Amino acid sequence: MNNWILIISCGLITFLTRFSMIALLKKEMFNDRIREVLSFVPSAIFPAIIFPAIFLDSSGDFQLENNPKIMAAVIAMLIGIISKNIIATIIAGLASYWFLIFVI
Amino acid sequence: MNNKFRVFLRGIFDVSPLMIPVVPFGLIFGVLSIDIGFSPIQTMGMSLIVFGGASQIVLLQLFSGGASSLVIISSVGAVNSRHLLYGAVVSEHLSDLKLVWKIIISYFLVDQAFARSNEYFKNNEDKNKYFHLVGGGITCWVIWQTTTFLGIVLGALIPEKLGLSFAVPLTFLALLVNDFRKFINVIVIIISGLVATFGFNYIPYKAYVIVAGVTALIAAAVLTNFKKNE
Question: What pTM was computed for the model?
Answer without folding.
Answer: 0.79
